[in-house]
Amino acid sequence: AQKITQTQPGMFVQEKEAVTLDCTYDTSDPSYGLFWYKQPSSGEMIFLIYQGSYDQQNATEGRYSLNFQKARKSANLVISASQLGDSAMYFCAMRAVSGNEKLTFGTGTRLTIIP
Amino acid sequence: EAGVAQSPRYKIIEKRQSVAFWCNPISGHATLYWYQQILGQGPKLLIQFQNNGVVDDSQLPKDRFSAERLKGVDSTLKIQPAKLEDSAVYLCASSLDRGSYNEQFFGPGTRLTVL
Q1: B104 — contact with chain A (CB < 8 Å)?
Q2: Do A33 and B101 touch (CB under 8 A)?
Q3: Which CA distances in Å does A55 have to A32, A52, A65, B13, B101?
Q4: How many A-B residue pairs are in contact by the CB < 8 A criterion?
């Protein structure tokens, strides 16, 4: 079974500062993928970044980077130079390569950017 | 490229009534997913289709929920009869194919309120 834990229900960050959203995971599968999604108030889930379990380097996409520490089973999202539009719910998710490849989500972190 | 379309966006019904949601995935996407997102939680997979076949419906309450994907394109999710605990956002997603590297694209969701 897979499990995603996001321990920060809410965070407040000053505009232009960097922010780290925590995510830890648990799985017995040797091969898996880790995802971060953003969910604004409109409700749509927006894909941000992906990290494969065998990727040697941490994933980066623009202002988003994933701090992947495999031994600690953590996959924290780092947003640099935060903007007001970054205010939203953020979900960490994982998907095993084997089996039914179901995407399992955490409970999310509500990020609020303060002007 | 058109995204995943869902309708209706909002639905309010009384308990024991029936309701149906519709999803049109991104053109050419073989895999379609229905998720249930209860307030304050991450999305939970209800059912996954590969073309018009079911890959995973282990978390679908089959006594009241049903889903179909005729011709491997559009999909309909039905609840009959609805219960109060079915109040949630129902998200449809699609991906090009199975596999952990395939990004899932989400629709805007249908917010269901059961009174």
Answers
A1: yes
A2: yes
A3: 10, 5, 14, 47, 12
A4: 60
Residues 61-100 of A with CB under 8 A from B: 91, 93, 95-97, 100
Contact B35, B91 (CB under 8 A): yes
Beta strand pairing status for A109-114 and A88-96? Answer: antiparallel
Cα gap B34→B46, rounded to integer Å: 6
Cis peptide bond upstream of B81, omega within 30? yes
**Beta strands in chain B, from DSSP E residues, in sequence order:** 5-7, 10-13, 19-24, 31-37, 44-50, 53-56, 65-68, 75-79, 88-95, 105-106, 110-114
Give yes or no for B100 touching A (CB within 8 A).
Answer: yes
Chain A within 8 Å of B53 (Cβ-Cβ)? no
Q: What is the band of B64 on the pLDDT scale with cuts at 50, 70, 90?
A: very high
Question: What proportion of chain A, given as a percentage, has pLDDT over 90?
Answer: 80
Residue B100 has pLDDT above 80, yes or no: no
Tokens of A49: 């970044």
The SS3 assignment for A77 reads: strand
Residues A91 and A36 sit within 8 Å (Cβ to Cβ): yes
- Euclidean distance between CA atoms A109 and A107, whole angstroms: 7
Point out the residue among A37, A44, A105 whose CB comes nearest to the CB of B109: A44
